[in-house]
Amino acid sequence: MSEETLSNLLNETRRFPPPAELAATANVTEEAYRQAAADRLGFWAEQAARLHWEQPWDEVLDWSDRPFARWFTGGRLNVAYNCVDRHVEAGHGEQIAIHFEGEPGDSRSVSYAELQREVCRAANALTELGVVAGDRVAIYMPMIPETVVAMLACARIGAPHSVVFAAFSAAALRSRIDDAEAKVLITADGYHRRGTVVDLKPQADEAVDGAESIEKVLVVRRTGQQVPWQDGRDLWWHELTDRQSDQHTAEAFDSEHPLFILYTSGTTGRPKGILHTTGGYLTQVSYTHHAVFDLKPDTDVYWCTADVGWVTGHSYIVYGPLSNRATQVLYEGTPDTPDRGRFWHNVAKYKVSILYTAPTAIRTFMKWGGDIPAKSDLSSLRILGSVGEPINPEAWIWYREHIGGGRCPIVDTWWQTETGAMMIAPLPGVAATKPGSAMRPLPGISAQVVTNAGVPVPDGGGGLLVLDQPWPSMLRGVWGDPERFRDTYWSRFPEQGYYFAGDGAKKDADGDLWLLGRVDDIMLVSGHNISTTEVESALVSHPAVAEAAVVGAKDETTGQRIVSFVILRGGREEDPGLDAELKAHVTKEIGPIARPRQIQFVAELPKTRSGKIMRRLLKDVAEERSLGDTTTLTDASVMDLIAAKLPHAAEDA
Ligand code: 6R9
């Protein structure tokens, strides 16, 4: 980014105050902000006390070895006990923890008492295999209840898990197994996706072949398909767990005991093993889930559509919701199987009241059209969440109208694998939300928007988003590489000691925050910093557009020129007039400086497997370079289609 800070370009004036009933019964109110501001550590101590501690902590925060934080030092607790057993002991054993919905339509509901028995059996099974506290276990699994059981079983015996997304390749799994030196791999025969059976075991075999650390491979039977087998190494999950006792005494672990490693793909270099620990992590995921989703465990049905292989699945399918005794939906498959209404059939079937999904999904639903959700009864919904990318104001409004029936507050939640839990988000019973804004840091969290020199910008300014105070669920390091931890996250502002998140943000006149995407994506056009997010949002605010990706391509006169890739809404045909119309629309919304030089209509955009747009590849196309690394793409053929079209793009001077 140049010395000039980001201009505050788009101007959104719509406001949506909380529904009165929600405000009156909200789990968390404005008072929490005041309390946390007066005594931040005291506030977090109170949130930690929502959990069961076997031994109380001595000190809330030890920040003497910064940037390596220690929270709730000396305290001891068991994460699985907190997520399962204590609810059973409190008399809620019959409550459903997980409504599992398989893609073919099979379903199964697991109560907290059943979950407790399954987790105990799995913990005993891992112990029989010689897994002890501190050993790493790799988990390469689809979206099925056994995945949650496996994670909780690891947590129960203090064996950090490393979950690897099931659609990752054998090579990706192997490098993660090697980096963490995992002793056991838990996988499945296969899973159902888009109407077909997808193999998993052959990839797992390829990954494990020659992996020195792996001693056993545990295989869950999901599809019943034939699988290759290596006697002595491979074991069926059901054979091993069925013969275990369903009793297991959970041992308490130190608050700083490692809970899991999760690899972020990043845009460059080797994946980083982000390390999270026990007490601080559970405190913040539990509190934020309670506060931001306002969960009422006796009546709500919660559904997070993320894959458990991402941090959102860890924090807001497994640890946050279960620690709060949620009843939740776990869905195996895709939104368009057997038809494009599947999510809404699921919402109606289970009477989902809280839905947490990603902007990429919302924009896809926009593209498919509002008539699809309109066919299902969505009246059970009361709160809608968004995570993963900036949500364009128009997508936000579409979500509110077509999914939320105009009555549900939207909580846009900003956070990262590294932050472990939500950091910036509105509270649904407090905030008068603004479409496209994540509003302000949650109680107990502190963030700043600063210039390149680290000076906070005033309201109305833009710059770099930094976290200037430690938080309980912060990453404790990069597995095996303390230098990389310092260099990547703490070296940008050594004097101020800020954690730099990599994102740009602006503050509006009220001081509320608008996330502008990764600073690497920010464009410099004729001396102005322009965020891709703002131009994309301007494009999406045109009624013909469902989704847009914008990049800055090298330009001799202006430094960079704005190139945009646009997906039209369902039913809208690409016509010659539309190109000029969209350019004029952006000029009207933002100003001539943001007018795209080129607009390319495409059917799909390149996305990571977690749904984020990969602008880097679009930039390669726009600059007519050969493509960089495409291995993290969901569908690499998308790039061939885009590249084939671009040279014919109409370009104005
Ligand atoms: C939870 C998750 C982190 C990056 C983050 C930012 C982007 C996530 C966002 C958002 C704007 C939001 N991001 N949530 N940007 N508004 N509500 O996505 O973790 O996969 O590590 O990605 O995602 O750029 O820095 P992770």
TrEMBL record:
Mg(2+) binds at residues 540, 542, 545. It is an enzyme of class 6 (ligase). It catalyses: acetate + ATP + CoA = acetyl-CoA + AMP + diphosphate. Residues 90-478 form the AMP-dependent synthetase/ligase domain. Pfam families: ACAS_N, AMP-binding, AMP-binding_C. Acetylated. Deacetylation by the SIR2-homolog deacetylase activates the enzyme. ATP binds at residues 388-390, 412-417, 503, 518. GO terms for molecular function: acetate-CoA ligase activity. Its EC number is 6.2.1.1. The modification N6-acetyllysine is found at residue 612. Keywords: Acetylation, ATP-binding, Ligase, Magnesium, Metal-binding, Nucleotide-binding. InterPro entries: Ac_CoA_lig, ACAS_N, AMP-bd_C, AMP-bd_C_sf, AMP-binding_CS, AMP-dep_synth/lig_dom, ANL_N_sf. CoA binds at residues 193-196, 312, 526. Its cofactor is Mg(2+). Residues 30-83 form the Acetyl-coenzyme A synthetase N-terminal domain. CDD domains: ACS. Residues 534-612 form the AMP-binding enzyme C-terminal domain. Catalyzes the conversion of acetate into acetyl-CoA (AcCoA), an essential intermediate at the junction of anabolic and catabolic pathways. AcsA undergoes a two-step reaction. In the first half reaction, AcsA combines acetate with ATP to form acetyl-adenylate (AcAMP) intermediate. In the second half reaction, it can then transfer the acetyl group from AcAMP to the sulfhydryl group of CoA, forming the product AcCoA. Belongs to the ATP-dependent AMP-binding enzyme family. This is Acetyl-coenzyme A synthetase. It comes from Streptacidiphilus cavernicola. The gene is acs.
